[in-house]
Amino acid sequence: MAKKIILIVLFLAVAFFSVSEIRAGMKAAENVTVAEQDAPVSAQPEEGPGQVSQQAAPQMSEDRQTALIMDRYDVWSNQFDSADWFYTITDLDHNGRLEVIAASLQGSGLFTYAAIWEVNEDFSDIAECRDDLGEGGSYPDIITEAANCYHDEAADRYYYLFDDVARSGMAERWLGKTVLCLHDGVVELTVICSEYEVYEDAEAEPTVTYSDGNGNALTKEQFEQAVANWAVSKTMDDYAFAWTEVRSQG
After folding, report:
1. SS3 of 54, please?
2. Cα(79)–Cα(85) distance, integer angstroms
């Protein structure tokens, strides 16, 4: 009889600890689930044999990034208070962090001025991207619905081809084939080739000259082939932009 009582007590003790462990495990699982739902970063990837544990890159959905950008509207929208301008939200460098581009086409010379802001690495704010333009420098004609996007797989960089038209009165016109690349928060603008047209006599045909990005003379045929030559070893695709117009209050 005593032996039976001891066995019953041991059985109940084991059952009690088993239930306690199950409850503790369920509670821990609930905490993990809640933490995963609230966490702004992605879950850790599973480790395989020989792998070193690494912090997973932070992630945020595009909807939440867009909300963050619009929450900072006063930061990036004050570039063009006194002019009509446009903005678009995109991911130029395909790094999973969105950018907002604010741009304005101004003056009879058709100059485009722009600023680009990107969601920062921890998704807590946005930061203005630097560019290699000097004071007063302008962007190519980026306010367009679509552009050719070229991917340099070796360098893992994306380039967007834009026309850049500038005028000086009615007599002079300049057309540049310019690519824009955003990399590590820096906007790089590169002129591949250009065409310069000048009317020296209103009654005569214009004089047209062609140049490469360094100012060296090109023939018309070389000018027409310059973009294709530059794009060798790059893959090309169409890329769409959805611009929203903002009217000046002035």
Report:
1. coil
2. 9
